[in-house]
C-alpha cells in the first residue's frame, strides 16, 4: 500500500485505484421481478451511469450522455434495442480522500431506476411519487494509514447516514455489502436470514438474505483481470440469483467521461452545485431528479434530535 501521498495526478490516480481495489466489497444484491417496473429484475442490477452510451460513436455529443432517458433505455435494453453497447455491465464507482491518518473510501452503486410497484403503490390515480429515474447510494470505509485496518464505516441512502463500528462489520476478508431491491439501500451488518428494513419505499417488502445460499441473491465480487459480467437466472420468490464481476470506476478520474468531468454537463447533472442526476419527469408516477450525485450526499439536514435518535451523521449544505 502507498506510504506517502503522491505528488502528481497520474500517481495519485494509480494509488487511489490500488487502495480501492484492496478494500473493494463483496456485494449481495436482492432483486424483485414482481412488477413490470423491475424490467425482469434488471432494475435491481448495478451498472454504469452511461450503460446506454456507445462510446465508440465518433459523433457522440453531451446530449448522448443524458441520464434523462435511462429509465426508458433500461426497457430498451431488455428488448434488445440498445445497439452496440455493453449494457448492464456491473460497475462500482469509487473515490479516495487522503486525510493525515486515514484513507476515506467511498464506493457508489448506480441503478437506472429507484422503483415502486405501480398500482396502489403509486396512488389511485398516480398521485404519489414512489419512483424516480436514476439511483445512487454509497458505502464509505475509513481505513488507518498506519496499520491498514478498518476503523469505521458508513452507509448513505435516502437521506440516511448510518454508522458502523468495527465490532459490527466482519473484515476478515473484503467487506460485505447487502443492497436491497427497488430502493437499493446498502447495509453492512446483516446475518443470514435477515433483511433490510426501513429503506424508505412504502411498497418495499422485507426479503431475507442468505449469503451462503447462491439461490437467493445476485453476488458481485471485484474483477481482478478486467473481466466484467453478470449472469442471472430467475429463482423462487420472483427474484433473480446469480453472480458477477464488477468494474471499479474512479469518480474523479482524469479521463473525459468520468462523472466529475461530466459534472457541468446539464444532461447528466443538475441542481445546486450540480448535486443531482438529471432526470426526466412524466405522468407515469415518476418523480423528477432526486438521486444525489456522488458529491451531493451532504445536501440534507436533520435536527440534533434526529441525529441522536437515528445515529445519523450529516453536515450542512455545501457546494
Q: How does this model look, in words?
A:
There is one protein chain. The protein has helices at 9-23, 70-78, 304-310; strands at 26-29, 91-98, 102-114, 131-144, 150-157, 160-164, 176-179, 186-187, 218-222, 229-235, 239-250, 269-270, 276-277, 286-287. It has 3 helices and 14 strands. The chain is globular and about 50 Å long. The strands form 2 sheets. Strands 1, 2, 3, 4, 5, 6, 7, 8, 9, 10, 11 and 14 form a 12-stranded mixed beta sheet that branches. The chain has a two-stranded antiparallel sheet with strand order 12-13. It has one domain (9-310). The chain has 319 residues and is mostly beta strands. 10% of the residues lie in helices and 28% in strands.
Amino acid at each position: 500500500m502507498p506510504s506517502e501521498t503522491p505528488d502528481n495526478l497520474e500517481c495519485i490516480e494509480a494509488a487511489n485505484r490500488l487502495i480501492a481495489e484492496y478494500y473493494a466489497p463483496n456485494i449481495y444484491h436482492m432483486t424483485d421481478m414482481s412488477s413490470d417496473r423491475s424490467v425482469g429484475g434488471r432494475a435491481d442490477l448495478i451498472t454504469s451511469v452511461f450503460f446506454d452510451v456507445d462510446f465508440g460513436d465518433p459523433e457522440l455529443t453531451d446530449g448522448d450522455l443524458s441520464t434523462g432517458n435511462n429509465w426508458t433505455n433500461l426497457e430498451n435494453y431488455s428488448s434488445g434495442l440498445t445497439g452496440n453497447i455493453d449494457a448492464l455491465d456491473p460497475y462500482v464507482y469509487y473515490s479516495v480522500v487522503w486525510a493525515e491518518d486515514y484513507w476515506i473510501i467511498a464506493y457508489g452503486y448506480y441503478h437506472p431506476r429507484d422503483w415502486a410497484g405501480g398500482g396502489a403503490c403509486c396512488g389511485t390515480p398516480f398521485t404519489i411519487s414512489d419512483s424516480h429515474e436514476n439511483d445512487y447510494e454509497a458505502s464509505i470505509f475509513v481505513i488507518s494509514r498506519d496499520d491498514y485496518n478498518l476503523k469505521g464505516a458508513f452507509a448513505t441512502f435516502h437521506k440516511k447516514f448510518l454508522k458502523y463500528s468495527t465490532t459490527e462489520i466482519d473484515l476478515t476478508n473484503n467487506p460485505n455489502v447487502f443492497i436491497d431491491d427497488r430502493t437499493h439501500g446498502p447495509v453492512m451488518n446483516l446475518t443470514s436470514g435477515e433483511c433490510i428494513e426501513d429503506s424508505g419505499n412504502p411498497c418495499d417488502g422485507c426479503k431475507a438474505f442468505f449469503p451462503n445460499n447462491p439461490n437467493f441473491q445476485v453476488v458481485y465480487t471485484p474483477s481482478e483481470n478486467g473481466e466484467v459480467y453478470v449472469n442471472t437466472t430467475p429463482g423462487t420468490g420472483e427474484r433473480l440469483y446469480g453472480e458477477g464481476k464488477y468494474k471499479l470506476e474512479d469518480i474523479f478520474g482524469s479521463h473525459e467521461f468520468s462523472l466529475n468531468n461530466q459534472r457541468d454537463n446539464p444532461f447528466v447533472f443538475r441542481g445546486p452545485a450540480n448535486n443531482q442526476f438529471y432526470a426526466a419527469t412524466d405522468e407515469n408516477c415518476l418523480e423528477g431528479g432526486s438521486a444525489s450525485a456522488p458529491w451531493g450526499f451532504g445536501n440534507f439536514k436533520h435536527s440534533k434530535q434526529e441525529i441522536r435518535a437515528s445515529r445519523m451523521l450529516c453536515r450542512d449544505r455545501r457546494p
